[in-house]
């Protein structure tokens, strides 16, 4: 009988205090694990957005750079936010937006609806519009130069006059983008300079 009573006493279970302490410890441990999982998911999203941003921005830089390099000139009226190029695809030296509308190319950024992010568009005078980057670019600025320079004061005034358009031999492009805007990341800036072909 004594053995039965001692077994029953040792099998009493947990007190209320022990149960509350165990629940608090499990809750704290669960909160730490949940916070770590959420943080790692956020880092993965940021890394994925950054990779996408770099890829899309690289496409814009390569395509825009190629258009500038193969163009024969910049149109009068080009501004700091809209670049208008003449690309003589058929090498006939005829510049006519009516008979050869696909040779006049305009690069611009258009509000994507949020007021903070913009789509980068490449369009022709014939009305063909191509989306080059979606909601990544926040600013696309063009500086027109007649000679190599790093001084912003040397940029020709915009919109370009006929004379300044003729004198433009170099286009400097400053592209700002933020692919992870929702996560508080900083804007990135990419600046590059291209010389127009057949221009001294």
Taken together, the total number of domains comes to 1
Order of helices and strands: HHEEEEEHEE
| Rounded radius of gyration (Å) | 31 Å
How are the strands of the largest sheet arranged? 1-2-3-4-5-6-7
Total of DSSP H or I helical runs spanning 4+ residues? 3
What can you see in these coordinates?
With 200 residues, the protein is α+β, with helices and mostly antiparallel strands. The chain has one domain. 35% of the residues lie in helices and 27% in strands. It contains three helices and seven strands. It has helices at 2-10, 16-70, 162-167, and strands at residues 73-74, 83-86, 104-111, 118-124, 129-145, 170-177, 188-195. Strands 1-2-3-4-5-6-7 form a seven-stranded antiparallel β-sheet. Strand 4 (118-124) and strand 5 form a beta hairpin. The longest helix has 55 residues, at 16-70. The mean pLDDT is 83.
Secondary structure layout:
Layout: H1 2-10, H2 16-70, E1 73-74, E2 83-86, E3 104-111, E4 118-124, E5 129-145, H3 162-167, E6 170-177, E7 188-195
Antiparallel strand pairs: 1-2, 2-3, 3-4, 4-5, 5-6, 6-7
Which tags fit this structure?
single chain, 200 residues, alpha+beta, 7-stranded antiparallel β-sheet, 3 helices, 7 strands, 35% helix, 27% strand, elongated
In short:
This protein is of the alpha+beta class. It has helices at residues 2-10, 16-70, 162-167; strands at residues 73-74, 83-86, 104-111, 118-124, 129-145, 170-177, 188-195. The protein has one domain (24-195).
């Amino acid at each position: 009988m004594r053995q039965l009573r001692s077994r029953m006493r040792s099998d009493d279970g947990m007190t209320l205090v022990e149960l509350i302490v165990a629940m608090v410890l499990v809750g704290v441990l669960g909160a730490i694990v949940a916070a770590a999982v959420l943080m790692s998911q956020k880092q993965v999203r940021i890394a994925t957005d950054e990779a996408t941003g770099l890829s899309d921005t690289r496409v814009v830089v390569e395509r825009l750079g190629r258009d500038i390099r193969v163009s024969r000139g910049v149109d009068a009226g080009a501004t700091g936010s809209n670049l208008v190029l003449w690309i003589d695809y058929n090498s006939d030296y005829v510049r006519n937006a009516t008979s050869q509308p696909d040779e006049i190319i305009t690069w611009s950024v258009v509000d994507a609806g949020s007021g903070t992010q913009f789509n980068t568009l490449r369009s022709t005078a014939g009305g063909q519009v191509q989306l080059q980057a979606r909601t990544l670019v926040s600013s696309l600025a063009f500086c027109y130069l007649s000679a190599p320079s790093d001084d912003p004061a040397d940029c020709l005034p915009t919109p370009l006059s006929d004379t300044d358009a003729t004198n433009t031999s170099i286009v400097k492009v400053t592209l700002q983008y933020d692919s992870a805007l929702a996560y508080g990341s900083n804007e990135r800036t990419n600046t590059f300079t291209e010389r127009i072909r057949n221009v001294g």
